[in-house]
Amino acid sequence: MAHSHRDTDMPETRPPIDQRALIVVDMQVDFMPGGALPCARGNEIVEGIQAALSSGEYGHIVATQDWHPPGHISFASSHGHHQPFDTIALYGETQTLWPDHCVRATSGAVLDTRLDWSLADVIIRKGSDPRVDSYSGFRDNLGPDGTRPSTGLAGWLHERGVTEVSVCGLAREVCVLWTAEDAARAGFTTRFLWPLTRPVSFASDTATHQRLEHGGIAIVDTASMDPPDA
Fold first, then answer.
1. 66 near 74, Cβ under 8 Å?
2. What three-state secondary structure class fits 5?
3. What angle do CA 180, 181, 185 make, to 5 degrees?
4. Residue 66 annotated in active site
5. What is the C-alpha separation between 74 and 90, in angstroms, rounded?
6. In the Cβ-directed half-sphere of 190, how many Cα atoms lie within 13 Å?
7. Over the stretch 123-165, which tens digit does the pLDDT of each residue have?
8. What are phi and psi of 130, to 5 degrees?
9. How far is 94 from 170, CA to CA, in rounded Å?
């Protein structure tokens, strides 16, 4: 799907509010500038995400939270001589090795306190299996048994009648992208709120854009995020 400029017809074609969900991905201290695994200019999206949380546009709000045990398999420090951002083969796929980040119950794993998390209906913690990384809010990455176990999020949304999800947060080319792709695979109309995401590296943006288009995911720009009466 092309870079979305459907803002003129989107309000008419979208489902009722109670069928819409906002998924806010991994807005955690370690992914902010100054954190262990900072996203480029991640602080810039805090205000916009708070506006989305309190907009009344979504009947359901989900937050995801990376929640790793110490020594997680995705940490470069768990692999001897490897450095952060090296890649290894893991369970037949390529695994990026990250700096230690979002270790459960540490200050870096905390959801950013500038956002009002009391507005969230549910917080999905992911990445707690020490053997498997977990980018998507819907499913873990491929594990040693050749499957991607569910977090239960798809069922949670389906049971509440949700048909459309809008995805934002950090990091654009990793956890937000994977969450959006899995949302589309699970049958939800999926909107990627591009201005309310930031990547680890802006160099990845073209590839991210291509994957979203390939997956039939609407890339929503700033204009189409304005209220209908704006």
1. no
2. coil
3. 115
4. no
5. 10
6. 27
7. 999 999 999 999 999 999 999 999 999 999 999 999 999 999 9
8. -65, -15
9. 21
Q: 76, 132, 71: which is closest to 103 by C-alpha?
A: 71
Please tell me which residue in 39, 133, 175, 182 is annotated as part of the active site: 175
Phi-psi region of 91 (alpha: psi -120 to 50; beta: other; left: phi over 0): left
End-to-end CA distance of the chain: 25
Q: Are 141 and 60 in contact (CB under 8 A)?
A: no
Q: How far apart are CA 47 and CA 105, in angstroms?
A: 25
Can 39 be counted among the known catalytic residues?
Answer: no
Q: To the nearest 10°, report the CA torsion of 113, 118, 123, 128.
A: 40
Report the alpha-carbon distance of residue 118 to residue 116 in Å, rounded: 5
Dihedral sign of CA atoms 147, 152, 156, 157 in order: negative
Half-sphere exposure of 12 (CA within 13 A, CB side): 4
Q: What is the mean pLDDT of the chain?
A: 93
The b-or-e profile of 21-30 (16+ CB within 10 A means b, else e) is bbbbbbbbbb
Tell me the residue type at 20: R
Distance (Å, rounded) from C-alpha 222 to C-alpha 83? 37
Stated pTM of the model: 0.92
User: pLDDT, tens digit, for every residue of 68-96?
Assistant: 999 999 999 999 999 999 999 999 999 99
Per annotation, catalytic residue among 26, 100, 140, 182? 26
Tokens of 70: 């110490």
Q: Which of 126, 133, 140, 182 is catalytic?
A: 126
Containing 179, the helix (H) or strand (E) segment is helix 177-185
